[in-house]
User: What shape does this take?
Amino acid sequence: MRAGRALAISGNDPQAARAWVAAQYGSNDPALALIGRAAMIGTGSIEPPDEYGAALAAATIRRSVLGRIEAVSAFARVNFNEPLMRASDTAVGFWVEENMETPMLEGVDPFAITRLPVTKLGGLAVFSTEFVRQAGPRADSVIQRCMENSLIRRLDVSLFDGQAGDPSRPPSLIDSTIAGTGNAGEDIGAALSTLPEEFGEQIVLVVSPWSVPALIASGVADSSTLNARTGGVLLGFPCITSTAVPVSSIAWLAPALIQLADAGVIVGASEASIVRVDTGDGVELHSCWQENLTAMRAVLYVGWRKLEPAAAGMVTDVVPATIRPRAPKAKRPTAAR
Assistant: This one.
């Protein structure tokens, strides 16, 4: 974040950016190396070395729904574009001694090679140029926190939004929903019945915090084991809360049956961008240069894929009576160019 601020302050002049960092933080600050790399690449973006990019990605994922789920049950971690061989349902293994005839199954393709393609999510934060020019750990912390929050919102919504969207970003894990019958236990049980038995102990449920009061009032949950802030236990399964899940719905995930990959973060900054803001009633355009603003963008390379169709899903209309949050009225930036 500090290197991105320096480039924004200097108008993407690497020499001026390095001089600013050295003057404010000393000649051994790690941001100097990142600025030098940006100058060599010529992209105007900060592409952190593995340890820095991984640290930024880890901080974002740890606070997201992905990280909170993984703290309970681990995902199947892989690398992007790594060839992975997976056995199909019809695979049969034989232990064959030497010089013995090898049993064969005709018409069976027991193994398949899969690769997880590279996908990404972007987060955008806009600050006054005066604030960005401040030196010190407090400004660094505020900017990094805002960038993480921006990425986390995109990450959480992308998991549960139910739409394929841009092919360059990871598709939603929820490709279909099940209408509730009024009995949450039976609905979840029926939805999970197609999963292999050995994955039952790894299921994690996710609900909106706004659904928790109704779940407790209807007897589906107990106030001693479930709360709106941290989750708890619901229907016998570990449960976390997230506003990315629609109110009155219950999402489930079997993390061991979901491949997950991340490959760090790229950070960029500009004082000449045009930011498009969705006000809820329309769209406004803001010129950073004219309004003395600095736009900072972070791109998180992250992707996931279900190994079984029932590895993730959602039951809707679980409880009829629920508290519904007021629709936000605040302006929010949606894009920059």
Notes: The domain at 177-258+306-336 is CATH 3.30.2320.10 (hypothetical protein PF0899 fold). The first helix runs from residue 2 to 9.
